[in-house]
Amino acid sequence: MTTNESQEDNMHKASSSTRRRGGISGVLEGIRTGFLATAMGAALLSGTLVTAQPALAEVPLDQLVRIVAEGGSSFTRTFNPFSPTTRWVSLRTMYEPLMIQNYATGKLDPWLGTDYKWSDDALSLTVTLRNDVKWSDGQPFTADDVVFTFNLMRDNPGLIGPASGAFGQYLKSVEAVDPTTVKFTFSTTYTPGLYSLVDQFIVPEHVWKDVKDPVTFENADPVGTGPFTTIDAFGTDRYQVTQNPNYWQPLKIQGVFVQGFNGNDQVSAAVLSGNIDWGGLVPDPDTTFVPLDPEHFGYWWPRTSVVLLQANTTDPSLGDVNVRKAISMALDRQRMINTGVWGKSVPANATGLPEAPFKDWLDAKVIADGQGWVSMDPDAANKLLDDSSYAKGPDGIRVGKDGKPLKYDIIVPSGWNDWVSASQIVAENLKDIGIDVTLRTTTADSWTNSTFTGQFQLSLGTAQRTATPFEFYRNNMATTSVKPVGTASPNNQQRYGDPKVDELLSKFAASTDASEQKAIIAELEGMFSQAAPAIPLYEQPDWGLYNTRRFTGFPNEKDPYAPLSLQMTNGPLLVWPHLERRAE
């Protein structure tokens, strides 16, 4: 299993489903899920990390941070950050955004931009830029590059990025007030647009203005503002990227080495043998990983999202909130956590939001009032179904008001073992309340197509990581996010919508008052708990392993300055300046 988005990735779902389901994100998902299926008896195979460098490498491999980020052995030299098939480093070491939503701290960290300010009517947003940034080729970075990037996306709808579609939704224009000031003018008040706009990576005008087709451009020799932009060596199954000679922050490491892995055993063996500095996943690391070298091996799995059981509300019975809540009350969440993620999580609350990143938004009363329907109580679940006229037939299976038995398939990609395990528990638990569920495993592509198009009955999904709860409730409850069955949508796969939610979201988007926004979110939390549009299961860990034998400075539970997960698009940018080579 992996998250329903990559990600990562930090991209907005509506604009990045291709990136998250194909290209690098798909590879990351394969790597992540592969660990869960790895046979531990084969984990110490030798020769898992090819130490030979690609041809023409100038920086020795032992000076580079070795990461698990891409799988396979057919890399193409594509560093176009707008492309779904771009190399992993494009958005983690080469191109940078104006600001970074730090999911470890819950803060918006300044990056290429240092500050922002709304106009009184919230129809314009002014961002101040750093004045000491250069592109890797030595040219100055200015507001003109920002304006160019946004206009490039406006003129080429095929380009993928956090701000894709902004002009069509809320953005009217972007202008350079001066070399270090950018002004975004909105066509309608939409304060959540801040996060999409500042999250957008920026490309250099002096390079991209001459590109005939930015959609297909491979960008084999990238020019960026990020810490590592030099393609020191490139091969079909490995490559290394080294320092940007003009980076605007001090760096204590030379770069990164990325190798492709063919098969789960190779990756797990490389991690367990200490040949990987950062990344990967092994089952139950307290038992299989950390004890091998407690002084240097560690992991940190903060929880920034929630695993959801999605019930397709276009089904007559699943469209009944009482059925969804009865399903929820039948589920043994703690067992899912113990078997699927080795006890490294907690059951989700009734708002659908993870606690750590949204602690300042959560309404304690909503959580307390809704605890009953997200806690295991099969007796109460049976009573709710009885009272709602879902009687059991002769075979013990309940019958819907349309006369059809409550028999459903739950679909999950094969190999996503934590989700397979959770789905098996769902099927087992629901039999106790007269609902017959059959687990169907499928390919990841088939599962994605079925869930995105609404052609499923039950499925697991992961809530997108978002900067504020606004995006979560828009994605799961707004009528504007509901697409007809058969029409692909990366959001609201359960097809639930409430016009009252639309009204509250509009009020939130039009407000710049923090207390007013918090009150609106509290109301939305209550509506989510009342309607149960999706069933929260448990908080999703963000997988991250580290090995400090060669490099130190990785974020961890004691020093949670940034996410450790390599899957988050901008997360690694926060980490590189903190890493340094361990003294020999």
Automatic annotation (TrEMBL):
<dbReference type="GO" id="GO:0015833">
    <property type="term" value="P:peptide transport"/>
</dbReference>
<dbReference type="GO" id="GO:1904680">
    <property type="term" value="F:peptide transmembrane transporter activity"/>
</dbReference>
<dbReference type="InterPro" id="IPR000914">
    <property type="entry name" value="SBP_5_dom"/>
</dbReference>
<dbReference type="GO" id="GO:0030288">
    <property type="term" value="C:outer membrane-bounded periplasmic space"/>
</dbReference>
<protein>
    <submittedName>
        <fullName>ABC transporter substrate-binding protein</fullName>
    </submittedName>
</protein>
<dbReference type="GO" id="GO:0043190">
    <property type="term" value="C:ATP-binding cassette (ABC) transporter complex"/>
</dbReference>
<dbReference type="Pfam" id="PF00496">
    <property type="entry name" value="SBP_bac_5"/>
</dbReference>
<feature type="domain" description="Solute-binding protein family 5">
    <location>
        <begin position="108"/>
        <end position="472"/>
    </location>
</feature>
<dbReference type="InterPro" id="IPR030678">
    <property type="entry name" value="Peptide/Ni-bd"/>
</dbReference>
<dbReference type="InterPro" id="IPR039424">
    <property type="entry name" value="SBP_5"/>
</dbReference>
<feature type="region of interest" description="Disordered">
    <location>
        <begin position="1"/>
        <end position="21"/>
    </location>
</feature>
<comment type="similarity">
    <text>Belongs to the bacterial solute-binding protein 5 family.</text>
</comment>
